[in-house]
């Protein structure tokens, strides 16, 4: 896993909500979601973790975007979001071009924290993600994102950075907002191993979450963790010339996603083995999704 810790923030931030990580290849639309009736009924006052799906009294399904002590899904919309389900009353939101079965095949040893439902709940923060362009482009972007987070987390196994000696290094006291959570509080967390106080500040501002004062949300709330990864993917160029999202949507190639995420450490011949690891996983994931990887795979 790289320890670049994510690059200085670019000026343009996309605000969350402004529309913040198998079977043989098949399209997502070919795999129906579970029936709404298959989910347990919501119970007021019962503790729910991020990613839990319940059936509300109106027959619709809702996914917990944030852990909560049984708040009403219709009233507490910050904690709950509608969840797509078939064969009963449902909503069209919450669709992802990668099915849950495919996701499980990609990450057979993943930590339960990195739930598929947590990822689906986070998609609303950046609605253009894996929904822009042709079916091929959508699948390529999904494969590229998941290949990179696979590399960053050892297959969605690690939630926090493993080298604790690095923890005190991610506080830039030169920033006007400082490090209110403590000098050693801004270590790598989540699917892209978000780190540095300024990145927690910027991601939190974009997503409407106070991550500067509470960076631990990224390791305790699955939807928040996924949203930070989507924030970086969709809005940050890192050492590259474009965001990873733009690279895939505009067909610039997978290599540009590597450069945006960890170009300082891996690209231009600095660490070819790490680059190859990402490329190999991307090729595997595109094959699983029934598409081609395209060109310009290396950085």
UniProtKB/TrEMBL annotation:
It comes from Streptomyces pilosus. GO terms for cellular component: extracellular region. The lineage of its organism: Bacteria, Bacillati, Actinomycetota, Actinomycetes, Kitasatosporales. Disulfide bonds join 171-179, 267-299. The active site is at residue 152. It comes from the Bacteria. It holds the Pfam family Glyco_hydro_19. Residues 39-83 form the Chitin-binding type-3 domain. Residues 1-30 form the signal peptide. PANTHER family: CHITINASE 12, CHITINASE-RELATED. CDD domains: chitinase_GH19. This is Chitinase. GO terms for molecular function: carbohydrate binding; chitinase activity. GO terms for biological process: carbohydrate metabolic process; cell wall macromolecule catabolic process; chitin catabolic process; defense response to fungus. The keyword Transmembrane does not apply. Keywords: Disulfide bond, Plant defense, Signal.
């Amino acid at each position: 896993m790289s320890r670049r810790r994510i690059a200085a923030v670019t000026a343009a931030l996309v605000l969350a909500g402004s529309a913040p990580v198998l079977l043989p290849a098949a399209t997502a639309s070919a795999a129906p979601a579970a029936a709404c009736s298959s989910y347990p009924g919501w119970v007021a006052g019962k503790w729910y973790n991020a990613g839990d799906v319940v059936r509300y009294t109106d027959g619709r399904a809702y996914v917990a975007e944030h852990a909560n002590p049984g708040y009403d899904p219709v009233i507490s919309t910050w904690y709950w979001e509608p969840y797509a389900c078939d064969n009963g009353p449902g909503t069209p939101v919450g669709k992802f071009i990668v099915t849950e079965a495919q996701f499980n095949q990609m990450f057979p040893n993943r930590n339960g924290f990195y739930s598929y439902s947590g990822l689906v709940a986070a998609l609303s923060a950046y609605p253009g993600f894996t929904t822009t362009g042709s079916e091929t482009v959508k699948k390529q972007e999904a494969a590229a994102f998941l290949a990179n987070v696979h590399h960053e987390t050892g297959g969605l196994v690690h939630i926090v950075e493993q080298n604790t000696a690095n923890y005190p290094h991610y506080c830039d006291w030169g920033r006007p907002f400082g490090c209110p959570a403590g000098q050693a509080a801004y270590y790598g967390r989540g699917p892209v191993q978000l780190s540095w106080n300024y990145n927690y500040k910027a991601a939190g501002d974009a997503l409407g979450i106070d991550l500067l004062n509470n960076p631990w949300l990224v390791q305790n709330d699955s939807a928040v963790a996924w949203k930070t990864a989507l924030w970086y993917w969709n809005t940050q160029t890192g050492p590259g010339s474009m965001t990873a999202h733009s690279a895939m949507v505009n067909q610039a190639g997978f290599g540009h996603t590597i450069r945006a995420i960890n170009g300082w450490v891996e690209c231009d011949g600095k660490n070819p083995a790490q680059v190859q690891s990402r490329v190999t996983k991307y090729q595997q994931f595109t094959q699983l999704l029934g598409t081609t990887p395209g060109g310009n795979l290396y950085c």
